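Quick one, probably user error.
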């Protein structure tokens, strides 16, 4: 899932934010700012493409190596946990060390993870690949989102927009392209990763030519201290909105870890493309609706989001019961309609109520909760599959999501919209296997 702020247009030139010193012109002999901007947008999209690529392959790996659903969900969760830990510790690293060195290191690590996937021969290789990939994505996300803001045209909001588009497009295209290659291409578990290895190998020397917007300040070691807290003023609404945040991300975790297995074992679609399309149905719809609903009021988001997500999950449960794949696809699209507004409404409420100087702490706390919800329920589902089966597990999982969203809806009806609006949010929430929040300290600066 990705969050970016749209109120980022600033005049070009030297500026200060959270101690970050930026240069007004690129260094001689480097890429022009415009070319570097579009290069980084493409790199962001390819990182998200790569993060989504393993999901349609989980069923293939499971068939080849005969591991359990618990192992499958643990592989998925390992990526989310590695990404979260890296983001907490290194999310602000590029503010102090420089954008270019952090991006070079992160993309090199991502390239290494692609080689691990391409040569994977056992479950252990999958764990290694997903953990390494989570580290790379967590390190790159803060630097990329900040770089796109640094290099965007003066007075525009193109950096935030392209961050959102790259994340949404990368995840959807990654899942779809991998499904197509697995279904119709040679070497189904290798080809996509070797292609991605080539892409990142080409990207590395180009990143080395990008202008460096940040003057290193020597404070990189201090920036490695993670900070997670919820201010007292926000604790009550945070607790009230917690069910919606957990439900949204947990549903994304189910689709991304066991979506392919549901299509194969419960709905009896043997096409690997079907496992990819069910992810696209949820994630792609979520991305489109989040863009269309970016100007909705908080109250509208907190009402429409949970209602649509609730209706989608209920319909999905009916589809699983009836064994109807097409109904399940339709249900996934409907759930995707509620996906973005449900989470963005919750986050907008909390960032509005938080003191300006502590909004970054609130964002960080929300994302810690979110990544735990993305991974831990999926692992619990993997354990449950071994005892009650995949169909029953999906049913109880869906019922739990419905209960949580119903609680969130009731809380939204009772609470109303925050009285004070601030220009925090144009949000694009996209729960995904590798997407991340931007650097919390960059967020803090934009709200001061």
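Nope, works fine. Designed sequence:
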């Amino acid at each position: 899932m990705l969050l970016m702020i749209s109120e980022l247009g600033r005049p070009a030139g030297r500026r200060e934010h959270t101690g970050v010193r930026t240069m007004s012109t690129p260094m001689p002999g480097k890429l022009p700012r415009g070319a570097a901007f579009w290069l980084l947008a493409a790199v962001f999209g390819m990182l998200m493409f790569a993060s989504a690529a393993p999901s349609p392959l989980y069923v293939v790996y499971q068939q080849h190596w005969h591991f359990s659903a618990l192992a499958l969900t643990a592989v998925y969760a390992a990526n989310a946990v590695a990404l979260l830990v890296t983001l907490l510790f290194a999310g602000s690293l590029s503010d102090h060390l420089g954008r270019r060195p952090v991006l070079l290191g992160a993309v090199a690590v991502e390239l290494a993870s692609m080689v691990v996937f391409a040569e994977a021969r056992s479950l252990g290789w999958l764990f290694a690949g997903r953990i390494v990939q989570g580290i790379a994505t967590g390190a790159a996300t803060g630097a990329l989102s900040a770089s796109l803001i640094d290099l965007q045209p003066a007075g525009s909001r193109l950096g935030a927009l392209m961050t959102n588009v790259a994340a949404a497009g990368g995840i959807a295209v990654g899942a779809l392209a991998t499904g197509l290659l697995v279904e119709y291409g040679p070497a189904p578990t290798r080809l996509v990763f070797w292609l991605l290895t080539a892409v990142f190998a080409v990207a590395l020397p180009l990143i080395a030519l990008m202008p460096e917007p940040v003057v290193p300040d020597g404070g990189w070691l201090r920036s490695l201290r993670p900070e997670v807290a919820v201010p007292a003023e926000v604790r009550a609404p945070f607790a009230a909105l917690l069910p919606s945040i957990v439900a949204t991300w947990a549903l994304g975790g189910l689709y991304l870890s066991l979506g392919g297995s549901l299509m194969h074992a419960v709905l009896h679609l043997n096409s690997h493309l079907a496992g990819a399309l069910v992810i696209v149905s949820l994630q792609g719809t979520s991305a489109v609706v989040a863009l269309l609903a970016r100007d909705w009021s908080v109250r509208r988001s907190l009402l429409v989001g949970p209602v649509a997500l609730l209706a989608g999950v209920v319909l999905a449960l009916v589809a699983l019961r009836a064994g109807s794949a097409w109904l399940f696809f339709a249900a996934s699209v409907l759930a995707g309609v509620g996906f973005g507004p449900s989470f963005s409404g919750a986050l907008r409420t909390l960032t509005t109520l938080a003191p300006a100087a502590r909004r970054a702490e609130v964002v960080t706390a929300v994302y810690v909760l979110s990544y735990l919800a993305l991974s831990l329920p999926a692992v619990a589902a993997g354990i449950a599959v071994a005892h009650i089966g995949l169909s029953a597990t999906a049913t109880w999982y869906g019922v739990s999501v419905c209960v949580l969203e119903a609680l969130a809806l009731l809380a939204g009806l009772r609470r109303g919209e925050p009285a004070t609006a601030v220009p925090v949010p144009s949000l694009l929430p996209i729960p995904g296997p590798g997407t991340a929040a931007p650097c919390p300290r960059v967020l803090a600066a934009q709200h001061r």
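The radius of gyration is 21 Å.
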